[in-house]
Amino acid sequence: MPELPEVEVTRRGIAAPLLGARVLSVRLGKPLRWPLGQPLQTLVGRRIGEITRRGKYLWLPLQAPDAVARGDGAGCTDGGGCAKGAGETRGGEDAAYRDASDASDASDASNASDGSNRSNGSSGSDGSDRTDGGLLLHLGMSGSLSLQRQPQPPGPHDHFDLATDCGTLRLNDPRRFGAVVWSPSLLHAPAATLLKRLGAEPFDAALTPVHFHAALQQRRAPIKAVLLAGDVVVGAGNIYACEALFLAGVHPALRADRISRPRAARLLAALRQTLSRALELGGSTLRDFSDVHGTSGAFQSEAAVYGRAGLPCTRCGGLLKRQVQAQRSTYFCVVCQRR
Predict the structure, then answer these.
(1) How far is CA 130 from CA 35, 121, 327, in A?
(2) What is the per-residue DSSP string for 72-93?
(3) Reported pTM
(4) Residue 243's CB: how many other CB atoms inside 10 A?
(5) Pick from 35, 66, 172, 222: most CB atoms within 10 A?
(6) Would you say 139 and 10 are in contact if contact means Cβ atoms under 8 Å apart?
(7) How many CB atoms lie within 10 A of CB 267?
(8) Cα torsion at 40, 167, 195, 126 (round to 10°)?
């Protein structure tokens, strides 16, 4: 499953090339997790703004054709069409999407009846700057995005194409748990509903050791389960949670509310170190993931504990163990990671 490093690697691969790109056509393949929620033709002619990430979601703001006609669109910059440079539960998110769709419908009806002229878009991380809506993308369990200058005919698992004058953005998703959803902005449903349950970004300066410890004190579940839940801090997918807990010397089954402030500080630092290294190595590829250029991630080759049950610990030499927590494999050292 693509986690935060894989999604951020993807964002970095498409943000510069697609900035100012004009949408030429849109193709949908087999149904994804949720419907797009917008007629395809309404996306044609729009320009892509600054692509951002929140948790494992990507936000592609789209500027309406009338704004582009007024000269508000950035446009492509190289003369040839392109800018320079190249643990969740399905049921919970599905319910959130249904609630968001209902809320969006009600909001649209209300706006039409009262004649209001509210800003309907956003750009940037807080969604406060005006655009004209956009696409919220999630890679699901097996998805990956590619950016192709001369795209091949879509294959059986290519379920979304956004063709632009800077290339075609294509979503390949064999298991079809991914999603491409239209939203008026990040502050409106369905995007706001899907994002509101997310915890802090791991590299956010506002997430201090004190705040992290205080959040853990409110949780009685095992610390690894709390990390995977993503409502305290996002980004700690299974492989990264295992590695960060090992680096911090914290047992994965230790209750979160029993972690001391110094251990919480070490864990937060370990999580940041782990995710930073994963970003440097292009994420992890355990099965399906590749970046926009088709390159696999390499973090898994440096894992200290993940996937190494029965092998010696790189610190103490003892045998590493595997156990199942909440239907996920957990790898740890019983000597280095005491409760």
Answers:
(1) 24, 5, 42
(2) -S---SSSSS--S-----HHHH
(3) 0.82
(4) 27
(5) 172
(6) yes
(7) 26
(8) -110
Catalytic residues: 2-3, 56, 328
Tokens representing 217 are: 């004190």
The CATH architecture of the domain made up of 4-195 is: Alpha-Beta Barrel (3.20)
Tokens of 299: 């973090």
Three-class DSSP category at 40: helix
> For every residue of 244-301, which 3-state class applies, written as one string?
HHHHHCCCCCCEHHHCCHHHHHHHHHHHHHHHHHHHHCCCCCCCCCCCCCCCCCCHHH
* CA terminus-to-terminus distance, the chain: 28
Instruction: Give the lowest-confidence range in 15-19, 101-105, 178-182, 187-191.
Output: 101-105
What is the per-residue pLDDT for 121? 31
Cα 109 to Cα 183: distance, rounded to the nearest angstrom: 15
47-90 per-position pLDDT tens digit: 999 999 999 999 999 998 865 554 555 555 444 445 443 333 33
The per-residue pLDDT for range 226-258, each reduced to its tens digit, is: 999 999 999 999 999 999 999 999 999 999 999
Do the beta carbons of residue 72 and residue 63 sit within 8 Å?
yes
Q: What is the residue whose two structure tokens read 């440097």?
A: 280
Domain boundaries 209-332, corresponding CATH code: 1.10.8.50
Q: Note whether 251 and 338 are within 8 A (CB).
A: yes
**Strand, coil or helix: 209:** helix
Provide the residue type at 268 as one letter.
Answer: L
For 152, how many CA atoms within 13 A lie in the half-sphere containing its CB?
8
Q: How far apart are CA 118 and CA 105, in angstroms?
A: 15
Question: Is the preceding omega at residue 31 within 30 degrees of 0, hence cis?
Answer: no
- Any idea where the domains of the chain sit in the sequence? 4-195, 209-332
Q: How far apart are CA 248 and CA 291, in angstroms?
A: 29
**In this structure, what token pair is assigned to residue 159?**
């379920």
Backbone phi and psi for residue 70, each to the nearest 5 degrees, phi listed first: -80, -5
